[in-house]
Amino acid sequence: MKLKTLAVITLVVLGCSFASAQGPGTFTFFDAAGTQPTCGFIVITYNSGGVVSGYDDETACGIALNAPIVGFVATTPALGLPAHGKGAVVGDAIYDASANAYTGLQWTLWLSAKASKRKHGFFSGPYGWIGVAGSYTGFYFGDNYGYLAAGPPEKGKVAGHGTTAGPLPKKLRK
Description:
Elements: H1 2-22, E1 24-30, E2 37-46, E3 51-57, E4 67-76, E5 85-92, H2 94-99, E6 105-112, E7 117-119, E8 122-124, E9 129-135, E10 140-146, E11 148-150
Antiparallel strand pairs: 1-2, 1-11, 2-3, 3-4, 4-5, 5-6, 6-9, 7-8, 9-10
């Protein structure tokens, strides 16, 4: 009986820890003022070995393809950046999804391990994400940051606010 009870407890504990490590999270990006959500959202899963994967759903932004996301659990130090701490650093193929072709551009994000604190519609505390962009030539061309809310954007609350990565550089726009 004791062995059977121990086996059940072990399975429950392992099952719970596996579920929490594998469970997807859906997050919406807000601007630095915490007032405007972006038109898209991300769905990520923390996998074994510290790998993070998922996709960036930008269909509400007029992008027909989801952008794959992959990266690692990471802690970024406070070196003057507006967003930092425990979370994940991921590559987001949003530029390729936007152009429906290989662009040679990379959008890299640090995402907080937790959604930003929000009370009565207002955010407080540290920012929940920061992104930087660059090209295959090593040219860095911008950054963006803000708050990270749990769940997809609320319907009707995203009009006119584009993706976190911003528009494609002019030479790549159709």
